[in-house]
Design a protein that fits this description.
Elements: E1 11-12, H1 18-23, H2 28-31, H3 41-44, H4 46-59, E2 63-65, H5 73-76, H6 85-100, E3 107-112, H7 126-143, E4 147-153, H8 156-173, E5 179-183, H9 197-204, E6 211-215, H10 224-233, E7 237-241, E8 248-250, E9 253-255, H11 260-274, E10 278-279, H12 287-296
Parallel strand pairs: 1-10, 2-3, 3-4, 4-5, 5-6, 6-7, 7-10
Antiparallel strand pairs: 8-9
């Protein structure tokens, strides 16, 4: 059987987008009047985005996430870019595909962020959020993404809205790709609106998603109990994409402290002890973190799991 994303035993995602872009020499002309909108760089500096993507592929990543975390009309409108939603998302997929063009067995995931509004708190109407997600997902699918990553989810209602939009978009585009969901659990032990990992599992289990996991907010140490719960209770694949530890402020600058070696050792434990089969890096993680991760996991297999009924 030819290897596909779904039947690959262990999947390595790329590392951070935003924090790496902050360290790159990006000319002010590339930002224009949209400084802080990383997604605008898909149009204004595509070579920079492709360069970052390529660095993760060279490091050993199997999957690139598109630079579309905040590319709904809702978020782009904060920069006056809502009318460029389609162009930005299309360019993002093209930039990622350029980075994997000569490397077989690599994939592009359409990144879908939580937006800047919480639907459960009434910051945005669910119908409006659903429309924005559907529009973005339709563009990503038509542009050729291999899967959809609904990530950094802070609100369970937002997760359900994004998932339903993903399946509707696949129907509309006549495409069928895997959907992955990754929630963010704060140091408080819950999502931002108070939902714990048990409620997340119960709510999402009926949906035909490839995986459920964690990303952002904390480093791997603070994810251990939640990953353990998923290992024992979630019947499908588990993903774990942590930050490079908890950030600290040093001389006015945000610093992520965890070395590639320590980060990779934590991830190896998740794979070999808890059965995590999708790994990668969030804020702070560099191509070097992914390189060491890929090397550390080169002979690893996800542990067998016995899920409680």
């Amino acid at each position: 059987m030819p290897e596909t994303l779904e039947n690959r035993q262990l999947i390595i995602f790329d590392g951070a987008c935003g924090t790496n872009l902050q360290e790159m020499a990006i000319p002010s002309t590339a930002w224009g009047a949209c400084e802080g909108c990383n997604e605008y760089l898909n149009l204004s500096a595509p070579e920079i985005i492709t360069e970052l993507h390529a660095s993760f592929i060279q490091a050993g990543a199997h999957v690139l996430e598109t630079n579309t975390f905040g590319a709904t009309r809702l978020v782009l409108s904060e920069y006056g870019l809502e009318d460029q939603m389609e162009a930005i998302n299309t360019a993002a997929v093209e930039n990622a595909h350029r980075a994997i063009a000569d490397v077989p067995g690599r994939y592009v995931a359409g990144s879908l962020g939580p937006t800047t509004k919480l639907v459960s708190l009434g910051h945005v109407a669910q119908e409006a959020l659903a429309t924005d997600y559907l529009d973005q997902l339709t563009v990503l699918l038509n542009a050729g993404v291999d899967c959809i990553m609904i990530e950094t989810c802070q609100d369970l209602l937002q997760v359900k809205t994004a998932m339903i939009a993903a399946f509707d978009a696949m129907d509309a585009t006549n495409r069928d790709v895997p959907v992955l969901v990754s929630v963010t659990i704060e140091q408080t032990g819950t999502m931002l609106v108070g939902t714990d990992i048990a409620a997340v599992c119960t709510t999402l289990e009926p949906f035909p998603i490839l995986s459920l996991g964690l990303n952002c907010a904390t480093g791997p140490t603070d994810m251990e109990s939640h990953v353990r719960y998923l290992s024992q209770n979630w019947p499908k694949r588990i993903s774990c994409i942590p930050n490079q530890g908890l950030p600290t402020i040093v001389e006015g600058k945000t610093v992520y402290p965890m070395s590639p070696e320590v980060y990779a050792a934590h991830m190896k434990g998740f794979v070999e002890e808890q059965g995590v089969s999708i790994v990668g890096g969030c804020c702070g993680t560099t191509p070097e973190h992914i390189r060491v991760l890929a090397e550390t996991l080169s002979n690893s297999s996800p542990a067998a799991r016995s899920v409680q009924s």
